[in-house]
Amino acid sequence: MSAQPSRPGVSAVAVGASAGGVEALIRLLSALPADWPAALLVVLHLPRDRPSLLVDLFAPRCALRVVEAIDKEPIVPGTAYIAPPDYHFLVEAGEAGEPPHAALSVDDFVQYSRPSIDVLFESAADVFGPRLAGVILTGANDDGAAGLRAVRRAGGVGLVQDPDEAHASAMPIASRDAGADFVLPLAGIVHWLQSQHEAVSP
C-alpha cells in the first residue's frame, strides 16, 4: 500500500459507514467544493423504522448538493446521494448518452443491512469500473469488505479509514484485510478526494 495516494479520473466515489459514521461523513462531505467533479454515493447504516434526517444534517454544512437518493434519478457530478432507510441503493447504467441513475430495492438484507454497502459498491463497480473509488469509514460489522473487493476487481481504487482512529474499527479492519489500495486517516482520505478536483482544474 502506497503512502502517496493519487489517482485522477474518478467519476464517482462510493462511501460506506456505520457506527460513528455521521461525524466522519460531516468531515468528509464538508471538505469538498461545489464543483467537485465526481458524484458521491453514500450508504450509512440507519434505523429502518424512522425517516432519515441526514440530508437536513449534512446539507447546511456542505458546498456540495446533498440529496436523498430517489429511484431512477440521474447521478451527476457535484452531488452527494444518500441512501434512504430500509432500501438498498444501487447504480444502474443509463441509456446511450444518458448518465447512470439511482435504483432503490427492498431485496433481502445483506450483511444484516438494508441499505447494504456491499450492494452499492458492487453495482457501482459494474457501471463505473476503473472510474470508481470506494471508501470504507468507521463501522462495527463486515459490510463493505466484499464490495471493496468488487471495486478493485473492476479496476477502481479502494480506500479505508485507519482502524486505529475510527470510532468503530471492525468494518475498516475487515475491508483492509479484504484488500485496499490505501489505509489512511480520515484527513488523508479527504486530501485524496480533494486531489480529484485538483486533477481536473485548469
Automatic annotation (TrEMBL):
InterPro entries registered for this protein in UniProt: CheB_C, Sig_transdc_resp-reg_Me-estase
Active site positions, chain numbering: 18, 45, 143
EC number: 3.1.1.61
Signal peptide: none
Ranges for domain CheB-type methylesterase: 6-180
GO molecular function, one term: protein-glutamate methylesterase activity
Swiss-Prot/TrEMBL keywords: Chemotaxis, Hydrolase
GO biological process assignments: chemotaxis
Family annotation (PROSITE patterns): CHEB
One Pfam assignment: CheB_methylest
Hydrolase as UniProt keyword: yes
Catalytic activities: [protein]-L-glutamate 5-O-methyl ester + H2O = L-glutamyl-[protein] + methanol + H(+)
GO cellular component: cytoplasm
Keyword Hydrolase: yes
Protein name, entry field: protein-glutamate methylesterase
Origin species: Tahibacter soli
Lineage: Bacteria, Pseudomonadati, Pseudomonadota, Gammaproteobacteria, Lysobacterales
